[in-house]
Every structure is written in C-alpha cells, then in structure tokens.
Design a protein that fits this description.
Layout (H helix, E strand, L loop, with lengths): L4 E6 L2 H9 L8 E4 L8 E4 L14 H7 L4 E4 L2 H15 L6 E3 L4 E5 L10 H16 L3 E6 L2 H10 L5 E3 L5 H5 L12 H9 L5 H6 L2 H8 L2 H9 L15 E12 L2 H21 L2 E12 L4 E12 L2 H18 L4 E13 H4 L5 H20 L32
Parallel strand pairs: 2-4, 7-8
Antiparallel strand pairs: 1-6, 1-7, 2-3, 5-6, 9-12, 10-11, 10-12
Bound molecules: thymidine-5'-triphosphate and magnesium ion (MG).
Magnesium ion (MG) binds next to strand 1.
Length: 405
C-alpha cells in the first residue's frame, strides 16, 4: 500500500510568530535577525520583504540597503520554541508518527490516519486550520507517497499552500524542477551536475546510476533515487541531541577579556538551561573562536564528571578561552560554546554533594523564573547585553534545541 506522508513547514516562522504577537507587523516587510546596524544575518524575512531578494543568511546590513523601510526585530528564541512545542503538539493529534526537522518543520506519516477525514487532502486542510486557529501561523503542506516528494511539494506551494502529488505522479512532478530543489543538492553538487549539462531533476533521473556515482560518489545513489521519486526512508522519532551549542558574532572584533567572558557567561547559561530542560549532563565542553580574518578554532576538554551546572561549564569554558587567548592574540569576531557527550540525568545525580547541588538548585530556580518571565528577567553578576547575535549557532546546527548531530 502506498504511504501517505505530509511535510509541513511554517511560513516565515520567526517573523510570523512576531506578527502573531503584534498584528501591527502584519502585511509589512519584517526581518528577524540581530542588530541591523551590526553584523548578524537575516534569520527570517516576511514574504513582503522577499521580492527585493532578501533571504535567510544574508547579512543584515545588506538587507537594510535592499529594503530600508523594513522593520528589523531581534530574534526571541523562547517565543519560537514555545510556538514550536505547540505546533508539534497539534501534529500529534493527527498521527503518532512525527519527525520534527527543526523548530518549524516536520514530516508526518498519516497512512491509515485519514479515516476520520475524507482524504489526506481534507486532513491537511483541518491541520492547517488548527495551526492557524491556535497559533495564528500559516503552514505549507506537501502530501506525497514519500518524504522527498512531500518536502519539495511543500516548498513549492509556499506560503499558506497545500500541494498533493498523487501516487504515480512523482516523476512527472519532479522532472521539470531545477536540481537545486532536491534536498541535499547544495551549490557544489549543483555545479558538478551543471558541468555535466544536468540542470533539471528529470535530467538527473535519466542518467545511468554509475555516471551519477562517478561524479557525486556515494551520496549520488540516494540523489538518483530521489530524482526518480523513490525514497523509502521512514518517519523517525527525533533522535537524542548529541550536542547543544550557541554562538555569537560581535558587532566589532574584540580582544576585551571582560567583554568576551560576559558573553561566554550568557552563552553558557543558555546552553546549560537547555541541558537541564532535557535532563542531560555534558561530559565535553568546547569553545569556538573566529578571528577577524575568519580563521576559526575549536578547543575542547572532557570533564571528570558530566555536569549541567552553569558555574562548572563556564569555569571550563573560561579556562579554554584563557589558553586560546594566550596562544593567539588576534581580535575575535565570534565566540561559541558547545557541550557534547550528553548523558541522562539518572546516571550522574550525585547524592548529597553539597558542592554541586547548591548551584544546581540555583540554576533550576532561575530556569523557572526565566520560563515565566522571559530570558532577561534575571541576570547574574557579569552577564552583559550582546552587541549583535547571529542566528545560526555552530555551523549546520541552526538552533540551540535541535542541535542533534
Ligand atoms: P525556514 O523554514 O527555512 O524559513 P522561514 O520559516 O523563515 O520561511 P519559509 O516560509 O521559507 O519556510 O526556517 C525556519 C526558521 O528557522 C526561520 O524562521 C528562522 C530560522 N532560521 C535561521 O535561524 N537561520 C537560517 O539560516 C534559516 C534558513 C532559518
Ligand atoms: Mg518555514
């Protein structure tokens, strides 16, 4: 029996959450990122801002030049996280087989779940309506027999769209599309294929597999299947996060130790809060520094005992920073922290260890207050406000809480 897979992606997610909270922003060019005077990048742009070419990842300074009348907002992750939880909860009412891909995107296998509705199409309409009613957000939904086709379909019908590719129609749907629409085809692959005269998915599909393999190596096998609308990947429950990270680009390159430490403190607090909310402790702590010339280094250590205590993680990160700064005296553009080697709470809870228990209690109390009143409700000792935040923590991990690798 053919499967019925939905790919759901919220439209202009960060921006739409802001618009839902402040309807005055609706219908206007709105950009969420860091400080528009700073060096951050666009995280999300409203559809009104897109015709002039603004897209995620573009430096904010350029976005400002392209669309000076746009409203620039700083990202507020707790709002997006909250909307994301509620979004996934709604999806759970339609099928237990959910695979979230990020904060605003998920696959849903609704095979056999469409009974209460007339059709998968009807189910998707109800789903979209619920997301709108409850979150005031629009979603685009692709329906197909496999993941890759559903994902491409939802992308093509944005914003607020619904596109169903009937069983057997996959190849005809894919054929005319540019190869870059295939998930996994980045700039490099697109270029390699272009050199072979391949620009559409249909052209890729019609190549013999061994030719694709010769040019693209092993990943070519999967791409060749996808190009033919064949994708047997199952919907997988989200894996356990293997690492959690946060990073920050400064408005100006700096060697100011106090400033660097204050920002490291902020990043540690966020990462540790996430660790605790996942009931995890980390064994490894790493810092990442990017210098003015874009050279980037990572320094990592393993802790004697896994921890989620801000004070412990911060002290380790500070030692790494001291060492790195002693070795290299160049101004720093970006600082990041990553914790990995995550272990479950139960294995590591130290009983009656007052040295570690105390800060842990403090951390938990602060988490509760922050959850209630927002991340800026409390700032301890040397936390300072940031000059500018970059929305893409640590390379391919786009956000703090979905930093699975
Ligand atoms: P996307 O779904 O890629 O983008 P979007 O929801 O803003 O717009 P679209 O209508 O095209 O789906 O990403 C979801 C959110 O992830 C986005 O609102 C902001 C965040 N994000 C980043 O922080 N950095 C990035 O580079 C990208 C692409 C997204
Ligand atoms: Mg989206």
């Amino acid at each position: 029996m053919a499967r019925c897979i939905l790919h759901i992606d919220l439209d202009a997610f960060f921006v739409s959450v802001e618009q839902a909270l402040n309807p005055e922003l609706k219908g206007k060019p709105v950009i969420v990122g860091g400080d528009p005077q700073g060096r951050g990048v666009v995280a999300s742009a409203s559809y009104e801002a897109r015709p002039v070419g603004i897209h995620a990842g573009m430096p904010l300074s350029r976005a400002r030049r392209l669309c000076p009348q746009a409203i620039f907002l700083r990202a507020n992750f707790s709002r997006y996280r909250d909307a994301s939880y509620r979004f996934v909860k709604i999806l759970g009412d339609f099928s237990p087989y959910i695979e979230p891909l990020g904060l605003d995107e998920a696959y849903l296998d609704v095979t056999g779940c469409e009974e209460p509705y007339e059709s998968p199409h009807q189910l998707a309409l109800v789903l979209k309506a619920r997301v709108y009613q409850e979150l005031k957000l629009t979603a685009s939904v692709g329906i197909a027999t496999c993941k890759v086709v559903a994902k491409i379909a939802s992308d093509l019908c944005k914003p607020d769209g619904l596109l169903e590719i009937a069983p057997g129609e996959e190849q005809a749907f894919l054929n005319p599309l540019p190869v870059a629409k295939l998930p996994g085809v980045g700039k490099k692959t697109e270029q390699s294929l272009g050199e072979m005269g391949i620009t559409t998915i249909g052209e890729l599909a019609s190549l013999p597999l061994h030719i694709v393999r010769r040019s693209l190596g092993m990943p070519g096998t999967a791409l060749h299947s996808y190009a033919r609308g064949i994708d047997t990947r199952k919907i997988e429950a989200p894996g356990e996060a293997k690492s959690i990270s946060q990073e920050l680009t400064f408005a100006r390159d700096t060697l100011n130790r106090n400033f660097l430490e204050a920002n490291l403190h902020n990043l540690c607090q966020e990462v540790c809060r996430e660790l605790r909310s996942q009931n995890k402790r980390a064994k490894c702590v790493a810092i990442r520094l990017r210098y003015a010339d874009f050279r980037t280094i990572t320094r990592q250590v393993t802790l004697k005992e896994a921890s989620h205590v801000t004070r412990v993680i911060l002290a380790t990160a500070q030692q790494l920073l001291t060492k790195a700064m002693a070795q290299q005296e160049k101004p720093i553009r970006l600082i990041g922290i990553r914790v990995s080697g995550l272990v479950g709470e139960e294995k590591q809870v130290p009983l009656f260890n007052s040295a570690t228990e105390k800060p842990e209690h403090l951390d938990r109390a602060m988490d509760t207050i922050r959850r209630k009143y927002g991340p800026t409700a409390i700032r301890t000792g040397n936390s300072m406000s940031r000059d500018s935040s970059q929305m893409s923590p640590w390379a391919e991990e786009r956000f703090l809480i979905f930093g699975s690798q």
